[in-house]
């Protein structure tokens, strides 16, 4: 059963919030797994991606569509990541987003209608183009990577109720595997 987590792209980069941002930007629109790995293998840090030749980055993103826009965003988010990195001391609220209620996740609450309220503060809320998918991904996969002494168990993932079917599928697995419960 642990092979499900091993194969999940976000699980494999959970200790690098920058890569989680890039991956979530690619996965929330299309399956960009191959392009993602080519990009982060070629330019493994935000600084290297900023310095990457735009034409090379565009070429790797071309199969996904919106390649010029994506390339620009990748460079912009990498610069912002360097200039104002995610950190808990600087968490900011996101604008109004449609999110699930903040009650603990259970089979019953997951199926209830989603409500509009302020999204929970996260260390990545201030980045441009970061929406519910990226925020949910961050809270599920890498929240404790920035402040492990304060949250060694990363219990935050238990509060996330994503609307994305792949994140829901992952959480169903995680609840079963780690908590021995059906979500």
From TrEMBL:
Annotated GO MF terms: catalytic activity; DNA binding
Pfam families xref list: HhH-GPD (PF00730)
GO cellular component term, pick one: nucleus
Domain of life: Eukaryota
Domain HhH-GPD: 32-126
Keywords: Nucleus
Subcellular location: Nucleus
Keyword hit for Nucleus: yes
Gene3D superfamilies: Hypothetical protein, domain 2
Main location group: nucleus
GO BP, sorted A to Z: base-excision repair, AP site formation
PANTHER family reported in the protein's UniProt record: METHYL-CPG-BINDING DOMAIN PROTEIN 4-LIKE PROTEIN (PTHR15074:SF0), METHYL-CPG-BINDING PROTEIN (PTHR15074)
Annotated protein name in UniProt: HhH-GPD domain-containing protein
Source species of the chain: Scleroderma citrinum Foug A
């Amino acid at each position: 059963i642990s092979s499900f987590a091993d194969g999940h792209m976000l699980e494999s980069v959970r200790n690098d919030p920058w890569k989680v941002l890039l991956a979530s930007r690619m996965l929330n629109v299309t399956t960009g797994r191959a392009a993602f790995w080519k990009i982060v293998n070629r330019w493994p840090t935000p600084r290297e991606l900023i310095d990457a030749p735009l034409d090379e980055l565009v070429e790797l993103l071309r199969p996904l569509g919106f390649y010029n826009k994506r390339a620009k965003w990748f460079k912009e988010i990498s610069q912002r990541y360097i200039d104002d990195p995610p950190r808990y001391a600087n968490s900011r609220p996101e604008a109004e987003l449609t999110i699930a209620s903040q009650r603990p996740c259970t089979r019953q609450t997951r199926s209830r209608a989603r409500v509009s309220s302020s999204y929970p503060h996260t260390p990545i809320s201030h980045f441009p183009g970061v929406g519910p998918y990226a925020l949910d991904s961050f809270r599920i996969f890498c929240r404790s990577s920035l402040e492990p002494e304060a949250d060694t168990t990363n219990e935050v993932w238990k509060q996330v109720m994503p609307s994305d079917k792949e994140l829901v599928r992952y959480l169903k697995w995680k609840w079963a595997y780690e908590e021995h419960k059906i979500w």
